[in-house]
Amino acid sequence: MLDLQDLDLQLDQVAHKRKSLPEHKALADLTAEKSVVDRDLVTADTEVSDLQREQKKADSDVDQVRQRKARNQQRLDSGQVTSAKDLENLQHEVGSLDRRISDLEDAELEVMEKLEAAEAVQLDLRTRAEAFAGRQSELETSRDAALKELDEQRAGLGDQRAGVAAELPDALITQYQRLREHNGGIGAAPLVGKRCMGCRMELAPSDLNGIKTAPADAVLRCEECGRILVRTAESSA
Predict the structure, then answer these.
(1) Which is it for the CA torsion 37, 39, 42, 43, positive or negative?
(2) What is the rounded distance in angstroms from the CA atom of residue 165 to the CA atom of residue 167?
(3) Which of 179, 172, 178 is nearest to 226 (CA)?
(4) Rounded distance, CA 188 to CA 174, Å?
(5) Using CA atoms, how far apart are residues 1 and 228, in angstroms rounded to an integer?
(6) Cα Rg for the chain, rounded, in angstroms?
(7) Which of 42, 77, 126, 191 is deepest in the core (most CB within 10 A)?
């Protein structure tokens, strides 16, 4: 019975280790951080895309006005315009186009600066996202290796437990399991001296006398905690 209890405690320890692997928390923390970066990266991608479209429009606007100015300037240089009024209007329009080009180039430069800053943020976030992915892969590999080792331990302990349990009565196993569930995983404990090692309480003399006179195959119970009590070479009873 004590061998079974020991194996069950080892199995409990393996189960606890599986749940409390440091890689589990590290992956959870990493996932939380990565989700923030991924969300910010989506925002950055959208901003860069919007600014790229805005820059294309700004480039197109400047190009159109430049072409219009070039046509007007060509008309002026060719001498085709002979009317003084038409010549004055054309010169005035060229001047207006120059100012328009200057305004559009300023706006174009502003968009380019915004785009450059947005692309820097995007690159930083993408680099961080890639680093997160690499770290996640490392942690998952480490976790899987640790789980594999623990699963192998669990399988070996399970085989040993099955062999030990096969030598015990089913009714006793059932009782032991029920006691384990209600007593923090310990359903059976040795009697060391006068003390139950399950609850660490010293048994009353009358209880010890009852244990002394009990048959060797009797199922004993601690009167304090109710666990199955197993006599050993170190028992006083």
Answers:
(1) negative
(2) 5
(3) 179
(4) 12
(5) 9
(6) 42
(7) 191
Q: Which of 44-47's residues contact partners 24+ apart within 8 Å by CB, and which partners? A: 44/118, 44/121, 44/122, 44/125, 45/122, 47/118, 47/122
Q: Where are the alpha helices (DSSP H) in the chain?
A: 2-19, 22-78, 84-165, 170-182, 205-213
pLDDT in the model for residue 80 = 79
User: Vertex 65, ends 63 and 69: CA angle to 5°?
Assistant: 115
Instruction: Quote the CA–CA distance of 188 and 177 in Å, as a whole number.
Output: 9
Is 201:195 a contact under the CB 8 Å cutoff?
A: yes
* DSSP β-ladder status, 228-235 and 188-193: parallel
Tell me what pLDDT residue 77 has. 77
| Residues paired with 188 in a beta bridge | 228
189 and 222 Cβ atoms separated by less than 8 Å = yes
Name, in order, each residue with C-beta under 8 angstroms of 91's C-beta and a sequence gap of 6 or more. Answer: 76
Question: What pLDDT digit, counting tens, does each position of 159-212 carry?
Answer: 999 999 999 999 999 999 999 999 999 999 999 999 999 999 999 999 999 999
C-alpha 4/C-alpha 12 separation (Å) is 12
**pTM assigned to the model:** 0.71
**pLDDT band for position 235 (cuts 50, 70, 90):** confident
